Batch of 2 targets.
Target 1
Amino acid sequence: TDPTPSLKEVFKKDFAIGTALNTQQIEEKDPGAGLLIPAQFEAVTPENIMKAALLQPEWNRYNFELADKLVAYAERHHLKVNAHTLIWHSQLPRYMYRMSSTDSVRQFLHDHITTVAGRYDGKVYSWDVVNEALNEDGTMRKSVFQQKLGDDFVVEAFRIAQQAAPHTKLYYNDYNIEQPAKRAGAIALIKKIQAAGVRIDGVGIQGHWSVDHIPFEQIEKSIQEFSSLGIEVMFTELDISVLPAPKNVVGADISQNAAYNEKINPYAGGLPDSMQNKLASGYEALFRLFLKYDKQISRITFWGVDDGQSWLNDWPVRGRTNYPLLFDRQFKPKPAFYKVIEAG
Ligand code: XIL
């Protein structure tokens, strides 16, 4: 009986609206988010459970239990799955960090992609084949894959994925690739894949931004430049932090002293109206920009359903109170939600 239209309805003609799903949500142990997911979204990305550490915890021993549950959940609720992610330097199984032989790394690249992407071909809509292969200056990140196999591991990963998953869309995904130097690196990488005659269907700009500087101008240029490569453009992990982004504190805990906490975690007691409205305006402007390019953009995915479960409460500092999404800790739509709906 709620007369407010849903995100997925409002943007149906423009692009798919998605959300990340955590384990609780996949196992339907989160009734609050459980109502919102099928009502508001038409696409889902597993936040963690399809990462290599979880799917292949020991070499050649796979655990598909949760990934299969996700696929079943998505089927029940008519949601498209963007699977995330095959090849990434982070959340790798422990043995990968100790792997010293080139042949073994090559074997892992081949077997992991073939087994996992093969199993879910026809069951998931798309894969983030390679995640975060670039440095901020556009050069290749020194991951275990890059170190052992060279820069071409990205082309190889897509080649193997194309073989294993002919019915699945294949994407490159990264953060800050809207920024000029990193964007140039991403464009070069995509062109290299295309020049090798290997299929790449789209690029995902993660979209972890901060309310004080949403890079509108670079976002617009990125949509234009990436889409001119003939591929889909997506925003795949959208959230807008309202907290300070301190440097060199990854993994730090807030409970050091009161003055530090106050500075680093200013909204523990609630979000002031001024900030609530600033977030809403930021989201509104962003969606107005996205709509200008609705032919180029195929999907916008939020990195979580509600503020209470956002990873930004624990990153880069643990234990903060952040408010980056459209639904609050009681699963109620925030002013930002209504602004986004209005824009649509
Ligand atoms: C994050 C998850 O949200 C966290 O739960 C996990 O602890 C770490 O990873 N870029 C990505 C995502 O591509 O996979 C990351 O997800 C966030 C940054």
Target 2
Amino acid sequence: MSRYDLGREELARLLTDEPAYRVDQVFEGLYKRLAEPGDLTELPGELRRRLAQAPEMALAFSSVAESVADRGTTVKWLFETGDARRIETVLMRYRDRVTVCVSSQAGCAMACSFCATGDAGFKRQLSSGEIVEQVVIAARRCRAEGWGELGNVVLMGMGEPMANFKAVWAAVESMNRDLGLGARHLTISTVGVVPGIVSLAAKPLQVNLAVSLHAANDELRDLLVPLNRRYPLEALMQACEHYRATTGRRISFEWALMAGVNDRRCDATELAGLARRLGAHVNLIPLNPTPGGLSRGLKGSDAPAVAAFSNWLGNFGVNVTVRQNRGRSISAACGQLAACGSLAGAPSRAEAGITRATPTAPRTQAIEISVREAAK
Ligand code: SAH
């Protein structure tokens, strides 16, 4: 349990010997002013000191490193928990909004072949308080920088949110109810955990759902996203249809464009079929380099290929956007979060020669070959 695992009720229990209005004051201080307990000057000094020292009030993370890119508009934090687990959080300022990308697990068990977090493996679940705390720290930074209020949260950092559904949902509710973030400004991204999508459809809060598709046939998707073997495309599409029918909300498909693998005209045709069936929006992003991805022969599509793919989809009548690449120089871009620790001031992987791929193990060679074959 850490500070933001405490809701109003738990705070009330901590403050049983205090007048009832103190609960509101502490709650406001933590969730609205995003203040440290020791800085809540409206409280009597003794209470302030007691709170500042209470173990329940301790923050979950210490910040190990912070890196800044894109002329100060992208900030990545490497956080460490009391049990020495490391996660990363990325804050991005755009012209019209500020978005934070938070982690839902330390590591990830999904093992997608192009994702650095997947290569690092699963460490442990994050608690809802640990998820909320990332948002609070980012929101504080927004205020300190004069960027205005943090507007959007995407659960697209480390981990698979649907594999930690209970904590993720508690965190989403707290962001909405306690931090005041609109449900429509919260996005859960999943690799395709069908039961999670079904559970989400039953929730009253209308958050956004993004599905990381990347392949529109099972043969290729099995190779890129191992979870596809458990929840193949047809099951995934049916879950998406159920979600759409129940909530009336449009889904987005994420598609990381990989040169020669899923960026050809035939891939666009297949994807368009699924997107039209679901009325889904498609978000394209050229694959960001990761050592594991490169060792399996996976490279991002170049700009002309991205433009061509986007045009093909557009011609099929699919609603499509190309996502801006942020934070590549600090390994903060999509799929690059690995919490390896050597961040602050270190050259980015690209600058440090990421093309020197990590030694290729037999298993990864097999994936490389099969990915190539599936792409033929
Ligand atoms: N597990 C969840 C959320 C975390 S990943 C999910 O899979 O959706 C957030 C997004 O980044 C996903 O769409 C994921 O497929 C994408 N991603 C992973 N590795 C990437 C890479 N190397 N380049 C671009 N996007 C990547």
